[in-house]
Design brief:
Blueprint: H1 20-39, E1 42-43, E2 52-55, E3 58-61, E4 68-69, E5 71-72, E6 75-76, H2 109-126, H3 139-147, H4 152-155, H5 159-168, H6 179-184, H7 204-213, H8 265-269, H9 279-282, H10 291-299, H11 315-320, H12 324-327, E7 335-338, H13 342-355, H14 365-368, E8 376-382, E9 388-400, E10 403-414, H15 417-430
Antiparallel strand pairs: 1-4, 2-3, 5-6, 7-10, 8-9, 9-10
Helix pairs in contact: 1-2
Length: 439
Amino acid sequence: MELGEGDLFDKIEADEGVGEDVAHFYFSQLISAIGYMHSKFVAHRDIKPENILLSDGDLKIADFGLAVLFGYNGNMRRCQTVCGSPPYMAPEIVPKEGFTGTKTEPYEANVSDIWSCGIVLFVLLVGNTPWDEPTRNSYEFNEYIEQGPVDDLWAKLPAVALSLLRGMLKPVPEERFTLEDVRRHPWFTRRNPHLAPDGRAANPVGLATQMLESLHIDFTADPMASSQRRKKDPNAMEVDHFERLALTQPETLLIETNFDWEQPARVVANMGISASQPAAMRSHQAHGTTGRDFILGFADEPALSQFSSTPSVSMTLTQQARKFRDILPEQPMTVFYSFMDFSLLLPLISEALNRIGIPTPLLSAAALAGQEEKPIIRVKTRDSRSCQLVGAISIERVTRWDEDLLEVKFVKMVGDPLEWRRLFKKIVVLCKDAIAKPE
């Protein structure tokens, strides 16, 4: 199998989305992949951001741990397993008693996949999910059932795309769009400059450029304000339902597992290498000796574009790029650089985490003195939807463009990539005076 070069949703701006053309491109590929699976009578049952990868800009579906054969020799099979991620699950999968129940009425797994694809399209266009879960505990879902798409997030959608989503997100499975209905819809059949006749990316470099320019940090934003417009039903019961779900990626890390907190896998893989700069772009920058070389090299660092007042891709980078990953590397874009020393930056990051309600351990004297090769701050919390969010913040002294800086990487281990980016953006704004910006 080819190597998956990072997650699609690591490259999507939380609460903003990727724009209509890019959303249409990836939704078209998602429907193509799901259509092929369903033609073989295989349903995925766990379509969500963590399971959508990229390969030179093209979408790949991963993680078939909950996939099921729903038809064989002309016989159709219904399922009863409660599985998936609540924001992306179809309502028929949830037991009538809610997540406190242990059984559900039989459902058609292929039809539930259509619902999940609709939620993914919504996230591509808006950068947020429409609700936390498809149950009576969700104010937004109840509002959708009773009044239709009326809140502010739905108002951001193009009218034709909204028509498609209303068909895909019919709560009654028998009324929901089929794959054929989706393929015939005017929004699906629209022309797209990113889509080649064979269904692949027509211009991977151009696609990556547009996606990179959609990533932006607003340093004037209030990091303490909720990024979601969730409203709670005062009569709804708070239920910790995650233990009752079948999950392919564990919601809780078990203490007895061999998980190495000190060396997160993606941190080890990139040890000593920038989390964002493509290898092909480093060679001409490694020997810079002048201030001008530093400025030019800094401008060519893809991850730093998001900190600019007007994010853009440098001409040097676009001229040299040959593949999607030359503009948008496989590593997540949750990284920043700082000229501060360990003794100032580590307490600043720790304080920022504490301000948003994430406790951190005491910092060691060796870490503060810069005597640890790569201090790591562990992060374990629940996101705004009460789903587990686990990762690490790695701080390392690096030499870039003949200058010494601290490189700070936010490495997600468990959880929704969009929620991890929201966390990253809050910490960045709280630490804004410590961050090296293109300007």
